[in-house]
Design a protein that fits this description.
With 104 residues, the protein is mainly α. It contains four helices and no strands. The chain has one domain. The chain is elongated, with a radius of gyration of 21 Å.
Length: 104
């Protein structure tokens, strides 16, 4: 998961919710989902958007804003610590192809 892109998307969603622009929230969500490379990131983004919309859309935004932002930062960092698959090591080229003329 790309933690920086996740946090930027969520912060843009929070700003759009503050201005009560629901269509911008859905546009940011759709663009972020289409640009992600994994299903887990898309699911995490959807769940985070629902949580942010439920928490910030229901009451006083100014008192809950720092709690939600720090909670999402911690959530993104925890998900970013997952072990990534290792790239297989490269095999050396066949002997002879590394010469100057490429012949063997």
């Amino acid at each position: 998961m790309d933690t920086f892109n996740f946090l930027v998307s969520i912060l843009l969603i929070i700003i759009a919710i503050q201005y009560q622009q629901n269509w911008i929230v859905f546009a940011i969500l759709i663009i972020s989902i289409l640009s992600t490379r994994s299903l887990s990131t898309a699911i995490t983004l959807i769940i985070s958007t629902i949580v942010v919309y439920a928490v910030l859309g229901s009451g006083d935004i100014s008192s809950l804003f720092p709690v939600v932002v720090f909670g999402l930062i911690i959530f993104a960092l925890v998900l970013g610590l997952a072990e990534k698959p290792k790239q297989p090591e490269y095999y050396p080229p066949d002997p002879g192809y590394g010469e100057m003329l490429g012949g063997g």
